[in-house]
Amino acid sequence: MKKIYLDNNATTPIHPEVLDAMLPYLKDEFGNPSSIHWAGRNTRRGVDDAREKTAKLLNCDASEIIFTSCGSEGNNLAIKGVAESKKDKGNHIITTKVEHPAVLSTCKYLQKTGFDVTYLDVDSEGMLDLDQLKKAITPKTILITIMFANNETGVIFPIEEIGNIAKGHNISLHTDAVQAAGKIPIDVKKMNIDLLTISGHKLYAPKGVGALYVKRGVRLTPLIQGGHQERNRRGGTENVAGIVALGKACEIAQRDMPEEIKHLAALRDRLQKGLMEKIAHVRLNGHPTKRTPNTVNLSFEYAEGESLLLNLDMKGIAASSGSACTSGTLEPSHVLVAMGVPLEASHSSVRFSLGRGNTVEDIDYVIEVMPAMVERMRSMSPLYSTITGKGTDITFAESGSHSH
Ligand SMILES: *Cc1c(COP(=O)(O)O)cnc(C)c1O
Fold it and tell me: Model-level pTM?
């Protein structure tokens, strides 16, 4: 069976060069980076080098990088850390309705401990209204936490403009850039970002490592009390192999980004166009252009999303509906709900998220197998027969024009 992986927003495979870079630290280079002897010095060098590489991808100083265990930890550390350290100044936080659960649940938790949180709306294309953001700011606002790019739709928010607004009001800006890092250019200085989260396993490093950029001067209460690691901001002996891997992944991402953007956007557009041409009643969830190059979220109306995923899986195609964290429940995606996507359409959504390994052949295979699959499922939908008068007629699927 073919194996086609189109779920790179859930996790990515480890890049071979990344694996090569980390392996010595799982074998001979075992020292504790805090030790002063040769064994410690060797691993310390690995961590330092990775810190430089990670900082370079974001355009910050190496001293502004804190290594974490994952994106969720980075988001928790940034939001709780700033909230705690600035609670004498105010108790108001602004975020959006479409954040990753690692941000949303952290904000909900803080609400229970006396913080006020404003959840901004998005429009039908998943985009923010900056006037709504400006109006939400109060003298008590201490933190704005808004994602760089959405994991479900790929929609990219105007972080630089948000950075200017935050700076103008002297409010800290944190952005969850887990879906943006390595995919699109990020410049924390130019964009006025104070804190930014990334995660290794979303950019071809392994699971279990991430980083948080914290601008020099931003005060942060640590989540993990311990030794002096990470300049007293995150106790715990470093995950050296993971950190080395993340550094290498950042270096590769920066090196290959222009090419990868072209490669992925071309495949993504081919997939979107092919499916929309061959299958009727398909809607795009998300912004047509302000999107990460690898992501397309489509609703195949009158077909059930979870069944579509099972059918795709039987053909060897791995995709997802909504985010991995909410799949398995029948709750519609909170992102699509916030966009006002009708319930029926949100239950028929599929997210394809492409990655480095994907080829034109992969995409064409999906375009080849999906029309009949969707039509078969629609033929079982009473609503579909009522609306189209088609029922079990499958000629419909074949009537689309072929573009390739
Ligand atoms: C995956 C993801 C996270 C969580 O990262 P982990 O490393 O899995 O904890 C946070 N935010 C976004 C946007 C993500 O896609």
Answer: 0.94
